[in-house]
Amino acid sequence: SSSSSSEGNKKDKKDKKAPATLENSTTATTESKKESKKAKKDKNAPPAISLSKRGRLPDPCAGATGKIRPVANKKNVLITSALPYVNNVPHLGNIIGCVLSADCYARYRRLRGDQVLYVCGTDEYGTATETKALEEKLTPRQICDKYHVIHKEVYDWFDIAFDHFGRTSEPEQKEVCQALFKTIHNNGYTYEKTIDQLYSPALNKFLADRFVVGTCPKCKYDDARGDQCDKCGALLNPTELINPKCKMSGATPVLKSTTHIFLDLPKVQEKLRVYIDKASASGGWSDNCVGITEAWMKKGLQARCITRDLTWGVPVPLKGFEHKVFYVWFDAPIGYISMTKAYSEEHWKEWWQSGKGRAFLEGSASSSSSGENGNLEYVEFMGKDNVPFHTVMFPSCLLAAHPEPWTLMNKISVTEYLNYEDTKFSKSRGVGVFGTDARDTNIISSAWRFYLLSVRPETEDAQFRWPDFQARLNNELLANVGNFCLRALKFTEARFEGKVPKWSGKGLKEIEEFGKDAKKEIAGYIEHMDKMQLREGLKKAMLYSKLANQFFQSTAPWVKVKEDVEMCGDYILAALGIVRVLAALLCPFMPQVTAALLQQLNLKDGSGGKSADKPSVHSAILLTSELLDGAIAPHTLMPQGAPISSDLFPLFEELTDDMVETFRERFGGSQAEREEKAAKAKDKKSGGDAKATAPAPAPKKGGAPAAKAAAGPLDVSRVMIKVGTITEVGKHPDADALYVEKIDLGEESGPRTVVSGLVKHYSLEEMQNRRVLVVCNLKPAKMRGV
Fold this sequence. Notes:
The protein is an alpha+beta fold. Helix content is about 40%, strand content about 15%. The two termini are about 15 Å apart.
């Protein structure tokens, strides 16, 4: 058994600026005493302000300030993510499924020097908007205005760097959608058909699917919707419901004939088959995407109705259809085009009429129209539920508009579902953590981005779990990335007067050994990111960081500085170069962390600042051959003799057990249940349960987590185990059967003091410098006074 002491952590909190806090993590007793004396001299120095308290830093990898257009002799990449629906706040599953994944990839392509345009926006038309408007007693326009702002604020907080974030209710949508429809219609790919639909005499209107409720014909559930039964999951038509009722008036609707327009998909199926075969092969479509698409194709495409009897939507520009609008899944993907037009009236056709559509029709996925935008690549990101509309419906519309040279998607990244603690995220039921919830936890956005991308459901459904989030933040970010970077920077400040050491060549052997191991991880990072395997790319970046920590430990600069300052300088020069590489590799995942590292390295941007017509990327993190080669020879990457910043600060803060329990309780149940709980707590004016409405506790910087007594069976996923090195060991002054060890766990706060009953198992000599496993989230306690 063992017991952790927080003594070293308390000392670290008193003086974050003292060089001793770095040295103490690995040095022997005599050196610790010397550094402790130094620390006492600076005990009045203000503590470093962590990244979470600094506000937004300038984005090191953003879009252009002006209008981006395709250019010659460069890879041009058009990126879109599935348009988030505007009827609610986006939850974490929505965020990782489309906008965050697309942002990560867009940043990577910018870092590679490509000409990138990332377009997205809110999907605002359709029945769901009208339903939400009725619930909130607002007009559809008011609902859209309200939730568009909320979406944009959430994505801004998550550091999503759109080049343009638009709306399907913009004027350009009507213009582009109606023009495209007219081409399709004139080409003979549509026809009219009269069908029976439920009609409300009381409201004098046809009822959309979600405006009808009744008894499910499959399971007899008495509150099924007109499109789906929530109990058995059966997909329904409103006319199939038993005892249907109008959701708005409660009256019984009647059947009435109405005429709609259908898209003749069978007529375009042959052209679509050519496109799918070529694009899926050349674009490396994922298995889940191909499987879903082929399921539609094998059944044989059926004509689909593309109009609705609604008022909120794009009007149908045909005589006799003046009171109908386009079905949302016809007009929504066209929003990618209209939003690009709203972004750049001058250049939108260069992105969307590049000739890629014509190339696929001619049977060649690699050929394209001549001209400066001939090397354009169109990439889409979405969850698996959106696949048929982007691999079947949308390209069918663009192919039916032939000979107009519309750009067709050739690469697509599809995720499975992210679930919340063994249940499904749900916007309609308010289950899970939503974007505004994440913002209100006081946990930095980079930590959320990191976790969501590390569990990104690329091949199967994944789970969001609070204990796993805690373990990854504390072990991988705080103890791995944050620990290494701050140690390297602090050592430079303490031992080299805050200047990058000069190269002597004495440390080349150890640096070359590091490079041999790092080469594999760098190559794997590029390979996975090129294939849009973002989760695997992040793993490679974290393995590079792990190698960095091992390099720092094995070269032991705190020892070498006393023996050979020049050799120590080589090690630190390389360590600072590694920090620069990490800033680049992690930028797609955690751009604010990259900004913080660039600031502390004091690396100036040599790109000339923000550009009007190309992505604005800090020159020090461009993934050029110079930087990638330097990743395995990191001593070549930093300007020797140049000063680093004097303002050094931690990147991450600990997520404690108490905080996890608070968040699990707060975000349990549905949004409605949370609001009810908060309202009840608010009514208790005095002596009430303040915990329900208390703000999120601020994360701690370092220190042993305070464990809460477990209720019920132990959740083993909460046990946090780290590998540490015993740096100092001696007999307990009051117990012959106990050792007292100082164990370096790679934490910014320094080594932990642990008491163990290992005397009868190991000698003092065997305990020295031994690597051990330590359970790190036990409650601190004393054993015989230690």
